[in-house]
Amino acid sequence: MKPPLTFFVAGIPKAQPRVKAARRGKFTSIYTPKGAHEDWAMMVRFEADKAWRENGYPNQWLGPLCVNLTFHFPRPKNHFNSKGALKPTAPKWHTSKPDRDNSDKKILDTLTNVCLWGDDAQVCDGRIKKLYANDGMTGCFVEIKEAE
């Protein structure tokens, strides 16, 4: 049994965008819009690869996996008072866009492309949390382990 692989990806988490369709004359094409989500995926790839090499894993994860993701989003200005201190009424949980499932999909698809596992269908367990960053450290904490 491999020990869990854990790493933190610093930055503002981005979600997997929805696929779009465009009609050009008689033809319809389907595409994924370009954008900041590609930069986020590049950071995820970099941190995953670095953690993989540092832990000396020889090959891909096999079998059922558990992936826990904790997203830390930046707080809006209205969470702070005029002196810059966090208001006592400021929420802990991030309840606005991006959606939890689209954020999860972006991470899992990226880790599949890095070849940490054969297919993200192997991920059958895990928790996803969306929180506001209290210390200004935005990003995502990733934990990958074999499912029990």
What topology does this entry show?
Blueprint: E1 5-10, E2 20-24, E3 27-31, H1 37-55, E4 65-73, H2 100-113, E5 123-125, E6 128-132, E7 139-146
Parallel strand pairs: 4-5, 4-6
Antiparallel strand pairs: 1-7, 2-3, 4-7
Helix pairs in contact: 1-2
Characterize the structure shown.
The protein is of the alpha/beta class. The protein has a single domain (5-146), classed as 60s Ribosomal Protein L30, Chain: A (2-Layer Sandwich), CATH 3.30.1330.70. The protein is built from two helices and seven strands. A hairpin with a 2-residue loop joins strand 2 and strand 3 (27-31). Helix 1 packs across helix 2. The chain starts with a strand and ends with a strand.
Q: Can you summarize this structure?
A:
With 148 residues, the protein is of the alpha/beta class. The protein has one domain (5-146): 60s Ribosomal Protein L30, Chain: A (2-Layer Sandwich).
Q: What CATH architecture label applies?
A: 2-Layer Sandwich
Q: State the end-to-end CA separation.
A: 11 Å
Query: Within the CATH hierarchy, at the fold level, what is the topology?
Result: 60s Ribosomal Protein L30, Chain: A
**In the CATH hierarchy, what is the class?**
Alpha Beta
Q: Helix segment count? A: 2
What do we call the CATH homologous superfamily? Holliday junction resolvase RusA
Beta strand %: 25-35%
Number of domains: 1
Question: Largest sheet, described in full?
Answer: 5 strands, mixed
User: What is the string of SSEs from the N terminus onward?
Assistant: EEEHEHEEE
* Class from helix and strand fractions: alpha/beta
Name the helicity range: 10-25%
Shape: globular
Radius of gyration: 18 Å
Write down how many β-strands occur, each being a DSSP E stretch of 2 or more residues.
Answer: 7
